[in-house]
Write a structure and sequence with these properties.
116 residues; mainly alpha; 0% strand
């Protein structure tokens, strides 16, 4: 799915009648997000202005460190936003409450079998 540093197409958010599998696929995609943006705007140094190779490499290393930090923060913000929205999505909360009810029914049936 990954072609030339591009993300595969993201699943649609859907609507109130969207199948829960599609909804969970959407949240799975965004909670595992990792940016492919270059983040060149955070560069502190221009390596072309370096007087020699050693200083240029040090500048490039510092820029790389800054880009990596910015990429991590951006990706984390996207993932946290997806988690925040997922916790408030009525489709997901309804699904979770249904799962809890099913688990409770299964436990009650198992206990009834043990007592019988």
């Amino acid at each position: 799915d990954w072609v030339k540093g591009r993300h595969p197409p993201s699943p649609p958010f859907g609507g109130p009648d969207t199948d829960i599998k599609e909804v969970l696929k959407f949240y799975s995609f965004w909670t595992q997000f990792a940016s492919v943006k270059p983040f060149a705007y955070v560069d502190q140094y221009n390596p072309r202005e370096a007087p020699d190779r050693q200083i240029r490499r040090a500048m490039e290393a510092e820029n790389k460190k800054l880009r990596s930090k910015e990429r991590r923060e951006f990706s984390l913000n996207v993932r946290e936003l997806a988690i925040y929205v997922r916790h408030r999505d009525p489709r997901v909360t309804a699904y979770k409450s249904e799962q809890i009810k099913q688990e409770k029914r299964k436990r009650e049936e198992q206990e009834a079998r043990k007592l019988a």
